[in-house]
Amino acid sequence: QSALTQPPSASGSPGQSVAISCTGTSSDIGRYDYVSWYQQHPGRAPKLMIYEVSKRPSGVPDRFSGSKSGNTASLTVSGLQAEDEADYYCSSYAGGKTVFGAGTKVTVL
Amino acid sequence: QVQLVESGGGVVQSGRSLRLSCAASGFTFTTFGFQWFRQPPGKGLEWVAVIWHDGSRQYYADSVKGRFVISRDNPRNTLHLQMNNVRAEDTAMYYCARDYSYGSFGDWGQGTLVTVSS
Description:
The structure holds two protein chains of two kinds. By secondary structure, chain A is mostly beta strands. Chain A contains no helices and nine strands. In chain A, the strands form two sheets. In chain A, strands 1, 3, 4, 7, 8 and 9 form a six-stranded mixed beta sheet that branches. Chain A has a three-stranded antiparallel beta sheet with strand order 2-6-5, with no helix packed on it. In chain A, strand 7 (86-93) and strand 8 (98-100) form a beta hairpin. Chain B has no helices and eleven strands. In chain B, strand 7 and strand 8 form a beta hairpin. In chain B, the strands form two sheets. In chain B, strands 2, 4, 5, 6, 9, 10 and 11 form a seven-stranded mixed beta sheet that branches. In chain B, strands 1-3-8-7 form a four-stranded antiparallel beta sheet, with no helix packed on it. Chain B is mainly β. Helix content of chain B is 0%, strand content 55%. Chain A binds chain B through residues 2, 32, 34-36, 38, 40, 45-48, 51-52, 55, 57, 89, 91-93, 96-103, and chain B through 35, 37, 43-47, 50, 59, 61, 95, 100-106, 108-111.
């Protein structure tokens, strides 16, 4: 059982937006602004998309955005494109360790 | 460019040991902390262990504490994960990753598969 709770799936048509929630506790997401999001395509290593709640690494499109409120973080993908179809994992620093959600499969319809 | 290459995976019998390695290149190895993660087939990511940039501290997931040891060989730019007393539930793809910022990991290896057989 994962420490963070994500919906198992989300979907949207090309051009639409999809939002993924990630719920933790006051010991992880609620306590630290160290929430990250990773994209993983089948058979590939994860790719960092968002760090420190809302920051984007160089090269990540600004269609990807992150936010946090209380114990819940969110990833929004705007202007969905076919290549956005992947698994998305949230993670949070939790005092000496990192915890993950179980992942959300995003389908582009 | 930054490169992380894992090796050492394979099939190992339950209760035995295995040592994974992660060879790093393209950056100053001693500047970064490193992590090991794993992903069982068809399942999600799990954090396994972290080692600080200078090797002074290591932390482990409860599921591997007391069985796995993370270490680094700075002169050889290599990260290790010594896996002892392996169990069936340790079967997974193991990834090494470099710290990007606090609590995030920006560069990952391609993974090495560990299969524990009974």
